[in-house]
Each structure stands twice: as structure tokens, then as C-alpha cells.
Amino acid sequence: MRPFRPYPLVLAAILAASSGAAEGLGDAEKGAALFEQCKGCHMVGDGARDRIGPHLNGIFGRRAGTQDGFAYSASMTRAGMDGLVWTAETLDAYIENPRALVSKTRMSYRGMKDAQDRADLLAYLRRHSDSPADIPEAEPTARPTDHDLDPAILALEGDAEYGEYLATECLTCHRADGSAMGIPSITHWPAEDFVVAMHAYKSKLRPHPVMQMMAGRLSAEEIAALAAYFGNID
Amino acid sequence: MTFNRRTFLGGSVAAAAALKSPSLLAAGHEKPRVVVIGGGPGGATAARYIAKDSEGKIDVTLVEPSRTYFTCFFSNLYLGGFKEMDELAHTYGALAMGGVNVVHDWAIDVNAEASNVTLAGGDVLPYDKLIISPGIDFIDDSVPGWSIAAQNAMPHAYKAGSQTELLKAQIMAMREGGTFAMVAPPNPFRCPPGPYERVSMVAHTLKKTNPTAKIIIADPKEKFSKMALFQEGWADHYAGMIDWIGPEFGGGNVSVDPRAMTVTIDGEITQVDVCNVIPAQKAGRIAEIAGVTDGNWAPVNPTDMSSRANPDIYVLGDSAQQGDMPKSGFSANSQAKVCANAVRGALTGSRVFPAKYSNTCWSLIDTNDGVKVGATYEPTEEKIAKVDGFISQTGEDDATRRATYEESVGWYSGITADIFG
């Protein structure tokens, strides 16, 4: 059952033009120049050591205030105990206005107001943290694309052919033949049940880290396309 | 939204007619031809999906020397006694029945100018698109004293099969209270948690057969994947058995003597009974021959896994230098599906969808004590970049760890069906 078949070439051309553009953290070369502002206190890279501020190697994924041997402010230590971990998101907020995140931080920096500058600086710092290729749990290096905003994808509502493509990702774990061993069957569900379940994962209401992650980047239309495909799979 | 489907498509019909027909790519021969080198998680998946989804419109040839493929993933579970070798074995009959022309031979040359592949048996296979997924090869002399000629004395067991069986036999034959040594590889390498899951599985076996035995790991890396989880598990299950020697204590300064069965760590010579040397790694040699490597790996475009050096060649899996995805069977399988969609689109004009990649790595620490790490990835201008992820937590309850292990068993069944049909 294929409810709608767009002109394949047109769509391929549009998708090719609109895809391939998850947002990276920024331009690391520009970030290296911006780091000049930080160099009075911080070192990063080969041979970096603590100075007025802690060295910034491996900052991504580190809990705040936990660099061995560095004397932090009580405020920064408390932030770490409260669960503050340095990620692209938290570092961005901290660099924008240090006191907004850690009220009595000793970092005497007024803040970097330009969002693009901060993104570039983070891209530079990111180079001196773990690579996800080597340590898969390392912090993300880009922000996910919101496919809800992609008009070419919006045109594909409930499209089983797109669902078939998206489904290839599900079939790494779930079985196309509907059998279930350790991993549940997802075939021949009523579309509504499928959609409701996926949205519950997407909003992290339903527990399971893999499914929250997989559903988290699917748009409503993509979930509908998957429901259409798996609902009628041969 | 003013940009609705009707106007969007209606306004584009003229543009569609103006586009060059992709079937011209097959000019001079009947159907477009795809050759795939390597029948592992990358190559077999790509071959299977292209053949299946093109419904006969593309000729697909898979070149793989082995008639039986043993998966590297789960081969540590064989060392731990959780899997038999035949449970890791897969053949290519289903691919052949699915329309893939499976050729059991070695690809020894790629002529990118003439667009063909030469096999050891002498046949020459022309292609319109070539997919290379050869896995890893080892870097010569990365562990002084070790070479492929010494792999029986000191197995790598990092390409699953006879090496895995040999390593298991050596573990079972170890003298009482003997020492198992592992020389761990530098980044980047196949399966980041692999060496540490292996240590866990070796410890599981030795705890039963040889409880006074010791395990030492010489490691050039300060940190490794799932480090906190493995170290917690080793302390819980194998207390006093495992000694991890990181670079701070000379773990990166290692040589071996396969005749004397000694390992020298930072100048200190240790007599060992079994030595698992996992050398530094690079792209499978055929990638270099095809002219798509730059240094040790083959750089690819993040949107479709095509080589940065040649738009008609795609590189999948361990050999590819793509960005943030770890070198794993799951990654290769994920990349293969994006690549298959792109190749089919290029050759037949079928719809090409945005690339989405993912990976999950499960590891077993002890019976029913499974952990996992996973992430999703998307193309950026520069590389395939990680956009989201998760990892098992230390201190999880037994039920969670058991469910994680059971999930991994289900995943093995799912992914091998997805790869081999």
C-alpha cells in the first residue's frame, strides 16, 4: 500500500540539497583565535597544566570542579556535587555568563555574548577532549537536525517508502519477520499504538535508553512513516 | 505552511524533466553494476540491500574470500564459554538467493581509471560503483618483536575464526597460576570496548578453570571505552586477578619475544603463558591499492560514505575515516544502509533520503552482567558527528544488567539476519 508517490528525481534533488547539514559546534580555527582571550589563565593542548585556571584538556564530559589537584571555589565544587557536567550546552551557558551558572565562580570573565563565537570556541576546545570514535561515550560534537523543519520531509507524511528506508535502522535489532528474542517485535502493530509508543520514547516518558535515543531524533512524520511501513510489512 | 506538497511538486516537474537520466550511467551495458569488496557487516549489508531494494535493476557482485564468516562481535563470548564457534558462523547462501552474485575470491587490484576490480583467480569485474569494506589490517612493527609470522605463538584473535579458537585453546591449556598478558592497541582501532570485554571473558573462564591465574594488560591509552564500568565489574567479579597497566606505568612502552614468551613493559621483562597481542590498525590493504586512503584510513564524505578521493568508490566500516563513529560491526551495518540508499539513487534515480547513522556496543562482563554504550550520528560539513548518546551506569541493579545481556543476544540475532539475510 503506497498512498502517495512523489516524483522521485525531484525529491531526491531536494533532499540532497537539504540534507547533510547537522549543525557542528562551530569553526575550530576561529575558536583558536578566540582562545587568546582565555590564555591569560587557561592552557589547553599538549603539555597543558593548571595555571590561574585549570587546564582544559578533556573538559567535555568532566564533572565541574573535579580536575585533580586544582583548588576550585566552593561554589564550583558545589556545582559539581549538584551534578553539573561540562557539555556543549553547559559550557555554552557558562561562557556566555559564568555567574549565571556558578554564582561565585572565581573565573573573572564577563562572558562571551556572541553565540557564534561561543560555538567556535567550543569547537576548538572540543579538539582536546575525547573523540567519540575512540571512546563512544564521549560528548556529542554536533547538534541534531530537526527534521520537522524540513519541507521535503513534511511532504512525506505517512509514507511507507520513506518508512522502509527509516526502518533499516530499526532492523539492526528488531526482526523483520516479527520474532522476538530479547528484543520485542514491532511488526503489524495498529498504527496508533506504534505512534503513541514512539512519541512516549521521544518525550522520554517511556524508559529505555536506546529507544529514547532512536525515537528522539525522529519527527512526527517519520514516526508515521515507520508505523505505515511496519504495520503492513510482508 | 504555504509551501505545500502540491505546489512544491507541481513547480518542479519541469526541473525533473531537465535532469539527466541516471540510466545513462549504464550506457554500453544492460544494467548498472555494483561490486562490493568484503563480506562483513559493511559489505554484505550493502550488497544485500542494493540487490533487494533495486528489485533486479542493479547487478550486484560481492567479493569475499571466506565461505564461512565468523563475526568478530560476540567472539569474546566464545572465549568466555557463552557461545560456540558455530554460533558465530555465517554463510552467504541467503545473499545469493537474494540476487547477489557471491564470488569467493580475493580482490587484489582496483583500477580506478578503467573502473574494474581484478581477482586473485584472474577474473576482472567492471563496475559503475565500487564499495570497499575490507575491515582492518595491522600496522607492521607496531609491537616490536611481533609479526604475523608470530601469530600462533602470540595470537591477535582480532579477526575472528582460527585465531579465536587458538587463543581459547591456549587459555584452557595454561599452567595453574599462569599469566595471561594482553598488549592493547592504540586509538583508533576496531571495537573500542573489545579488548576489555575480552579480558572480562578470559577472567570468567580462568576463574572457573584456573582461579589463581593472573591477567595483565599493557595499554598505551589513558582512558578506554566503558572504563568505569569494566573496572567496577573487574573489582566485583574478578578481585585481585586483573592488573591494568596504563601509560603512566609504561603500558605504552612494550615489546614482546614470541620465542621466549616474554613481554617487556617499560624495560621490565615478564614471563607469560599466553600473550594476546592486538597490534595498531589501519584500513584493509585493498583500500590503499584502490587509492582511497590518506595515511592509515580512507576519508569519506559524511552524507553517503563515498570516498573523498573518488566519487565512484564508497568505503564502509572499519577502513573508513568518517568522524565520530566507533569502528564496529553495528557502525558498518548502519553506514552500509545509508550507502546502499545513495548508490541505488545514483544508479537508478530512486529516492535518496537524509543520512542517519547509529551505533550501540554491548559488552558482557560476567554471567548476566551486560553493559552498553550507544549514540546517534548525523553528517556535518566536516564529518559524521555524534548528536546524542547514552551509556550504562555504574551500580545498576542485577535485573537491568541481565536485561541488557538478553537484549544483546537479541541484537546479535537481529543484526546477523540483517547482514546475511
Q: Could you explain how this protein is built, in words?
A:
The complex is a heterodimer of chains A (234) and B (421). By secondary structure, chain A is mainly α. Helices cover 42% and strands 2% of the residues of chain A. Chain A is built from eleven helices and two strands. A two-stranded antiparallel ribbon of chain A has the order 1-2. With 421 residues, chain B is of the alpha/beta class. Chain B folds into two domains: 184 residues, FAD/NAD(P)-binding domain (3-Layer(bba) Sandwich), CATH 3.50.50; 140 residues, 3-Layer(bba) Sandwich (FAD/NAD(P)-binding domain). Helix content of chain B is 29%, strand content 25%. Chain B has eleven helices and 24 strands. In chain B, helix 3 runs parallel beside helix 10 and helix 7 runs parallel beside helix 8. Chains A and B meet through helix 1, strand 1, strand 2, helix 7 and helix 8 of A and helix 1, helix 2, helix 10, strand 22 and strand 23 of B.
In short:
Chain A has 234 residues and is an all-alpha fold. Chain A has helices spanning 8-18, 28-34, 74-81, 88-96, 98-101, 115-126, 151-154, 160-170, 191-202, 209-216, 220-231, and strands at 23-24, 142-143. Chain B contains eleven helices and 24 strands.
Task: Give the SSE map.
The complex is a heterodimer of chains A (234) and B (421).
Chain A: H1 8-18, E1 23-24, H2 28-34, H3 74-81, H4 88-96, H5 98-101, H6 115-126, E2 142-143, H7 151-154, H8 160-170, H9 191-202, H10 209-216, H11 220-231
Antiparallel strand pairs in A: 1-2
Helix pairs in contact in A: 2-6, 4-6, 8-11, 9-10, 9-11
Chain B: H1 5-10, H2 13-18, E1 33-37, H3 43-54, E2 59-63, E3 68-70, H4 75-79, E4 89-91, H5 93-97, E5 101-103, E6 107-111, E7 116-119, E8 124-126, E9 129-132, E10 136-138, H6 162-172, E11 179-183, H7 194-209, E12 214-218, H8 227-237, E13 242-245, E14 254-257, E15 262-265, E16 268-271, E17 274-277, E18 281-283, H9 285-289, E19 298-299, E20 313-315, E21 320-321, H10 329-348, E22 357-366, E23 369-379, E24 384-391, H11 398-420
Parallel strand pairs in B: 1-2, 1-9, 2-5, 9-20, 11-12, 11-17, 12-13, 19-21
Antiparallel strand pairs in B: 3-4, 6-7, 7-8, 10-18, 14-15, 15-16, 22-23, 23-24
